[in-house]
Specification:
The protein is α/β, with parallel strands linked by helices and 278 residues long. Helix content is 41%, strand content 23%. Helix 9 links the parallel strand 6 and strand 7. The protein is elongated and about 65 Å long.
Length: 278
């Protein structure tokens, strides 16, 4: 295995050498000041805590495994590809962000059923003018750091991309066009006479829905599960992530970090490229 170390800051050589000692690495390769590959490393119980304390993201990657082995990357939208929870920002237009954000957080921690949480949150938006959605997109929505680098690298390797979200089509379709994603699927807010009705139209895309869409697109592309990478941050992403050969917890809740193949706690989305790059 190779032990990949990456951070937002330059990693001191003493810290790299300490981790090399813990892992019994045969060789240290410095790729950049913030990125190292430790060859022929072995897991050690103290590595996770040491890395977290020093704000280093790490991952044990089988030698020879790289991005070219994959054919599909599936991403959550809110707080994964983008920097906000869209529904919380929509609620802010109604002056009820704290109430909605509290339900969002509870759902992401896995404390309440996602579909029920979505119905409760959307109901609070009843009567809001649909122009508020465009304001959120234009004024508040940004890609998370490293997104452009990651997506460019995926395109270079011919890897297809699916954005699947418990959020809303209004945002996923705009992002799909903006950054050149191959597939997108999400929930639809019901709008009548320019106003949100407080209802979600059609079947809710919940945790199982995300997993189903991953498998639907994977099958359509003729790929095996081990050729899929799934990225998410909340409990609603766990079923989807379980269907992928590699799962990435991106700045995620503890319940997600505990079950993912790799956790990116500090670096941006380009951390995926650093993990699996040549």
């Amino acid at each position: 295995m190779n032990l990949i170390l990456q951070a937002l800051h330059d990693i001191p050589s003493a810290q790299v050498e300490h981790l090399a000692g813990l892992s019994g690495a045969a060789r240290i390769e410095q790729i950049a000041a913030h990125l190292y590959r430790l060859r022929e490393a072995k897991p050690h119980a103290d590595i996770a805590a040491y890395c977290f304390e020093h704000r280093i993201d790490y991952g044990f990657v089988p030698q020879g495994k790289h991005l070219g082995d994959f054919g599909l990357v599936v991403m959550d939208m809110d707080s994964t590809l983008i920097n906000i929870e869209c529904i919380d920002e929509i609620a802010d237009m109604q002056g009820i962000k704290p109430q909605v954000a509290e339900i969002t957080e509870s759902a992401m921690r896995g404390e309440i059923d996602f579909a029920e949480s979505l119905r409760r949150r959307v109901a609070l938006l009843k009567g809001l003018d649909e122009s508020a959605l465009l304001r959120v997109y234009d004024e508040r929505l940004k890609l998370n750091p490293g997104a452009e680098t990651m997506l460019a690298e995926l395109k270079k390797h011919g890897i297809r991309t699916l954005l699947v979200s418990g959020g809303f089509v209004f945002f996923t379709e705009r992002l799909k066009q903006r950054v050149g994603l191959d597939f997108a699927h999400a929930n639809t807010l019901e709008i009548v006479d320019g106003k949100l009705t407080g209802n979600v139209a059609g079947k809710i895309v919940d945790a199982q829905g995300k997993a189903d869409w991953l498998n639907h697109v994977r099958t359509e592309l003729g790929l095996q599960p081990e050729q899929v990478i799934a990225m998410g941050d909340g409990a609603n992403d766990l079923k989807m992530m379980a269907q992928a050969g590699v799962s990435i917890a991106y700045h995620a809740k503890p319940v997600v970090r505990a079950q993912a193949s790799y956790a990116l706690n500090f670096v941006g989305l380009d951390g995926l490229v650093n993990l699996l790059g040549n």
